[in-house]
Amino acid sequence: MKLLGAIEAGGTKFVCGIGHEDGSIIDRVSFPTTHPEETMAQVFQYFEGKNVEAIGIGSFGPIDPVIGSPTYGYVTTTPKPFWSQYNLVGAVREKIDVPIGFDTDVNGAALGEYKWGAAQGLDSCLYITVGTGIGAGAVVGGTLIHGLSHPEMGHIYVRRHEQDTFAGACPFHGDCLEGLAAGPAIGSRWGRPAVELAPDDLAWEIEAHYLAHALMSYVLILSPQKIVMGGGVMKQSHLFPMIRTKLQELLKGYVQHASLTADIDSYIVPPQLGDNAGLAGSIALASMALAGK
Ligand code: ADP
Ligand code: ZN
């Protein structure tokens, strides 16, 4: 089987690995995201002599994933020091001469779950991560959604919970979804890290409220056949039933489909690829690049 390379480029850490076209991962390493030159030197060192036939990069964003655009392959307007306007694909291409697939980390994860995970055999799915930030990617008809750039579904506005007075923490929008419901927002609102809050804390009722509002918009706009929810905050597995129930309440039976009524437990699910979702996503991007797609 052909060897494929994967780079999961995160704002906190980079994970590199190699795998096969069936999504299996045979090796992985991880190192902190520091200065591009230092971090990329570690990437090149890892892939040296590995003879991969293609590389997939799932990156933190915003990025330019539009082939043909002058800044294709760049990390664009990130506030992360040193990485703004960094030509990530260009840097890899200079050292490793193989087809390169490049997309957001969440688009990669969506593709991985679609090909090998929770959405296998379906035509569409949405992957959302609730972690340091909130981001989502979607596959529709087997294709990852792009447009002007890539979707930014974490920054939509949601209806405020009536018991929530937290101003919101998004540096761009204040109380957008990410500003209200990402891990750091939970930490700031309650004065301690999300992981320390008890399962019956009001914090989770508010969290589920916001995430269910977001899912309602995604369901109404994209009609995905499966919603996969990952990221550190979703390790609180009691959120899943709360989100499912709230989504049903919000939709009020308007979208009549068994996935939203009788089968909602198998409609909104954790990543089947678990902690490998990101790396498997990058393998999926590599396999698309190899196929010339
Ligand atoms: P990243 O988004 O940087 O890739 P994570 O998905 O792990 O990383 O998200 C980190 C965020 O998730 C932090 O804000 C942290 O507080 C929160 N988090 C991590 N683990 C848990 C947990 N078990 N319960 C609740 N929140 C968590
Ligand atoms: Zn925002």
Describe this protein with a few key phrases.
single chain; 293 residues; alpha/beta; Nucleotidyltransferase, domain 5; five-stranded mixed beta sheet; globular; binds adenosine-5'-diphosphate; binds zinc ion
Secondary structure tally: strands: 12
Examine the coordinates and then state which fold CATH places here, giving the name of the CATH topology of the largest domain: Nucleotidyltransferase, domain 5
Ions, cofactors and other bound molecules: adenosine-5'-diphosphate, zinc ion
Mean pLDDT: 96
The helix/strand series, from N terminus to C terminus, equals EEEHEEEHEHEEEHHHEHEH
User: What number of domains?
Assistant: 2
* Separation of the first and last Cα atoms: 19 Å
Main β-sheet, in a few words?
A: 5 strands, mixed
Assigned CATH superfamily of the largest domain: ATPase, nucleotide binding domain
Structural class: alpha/beta
Task: Kindly provide the name of the CATH class of the largest domain.
Answer: Alpha Beta
How are strands sequenced across the largest beta sheet? Answer: 3-2-1-4-7
Radius of gyration: 19 Å
Portion in beta strands: 15-25%
Basic shape: globular
Helix content: 25-40%
- Total of helices: 8
- Low-confidence sequence ranges: none
- CATH architecture identity of the largest domain: 2-Layer Sandwich
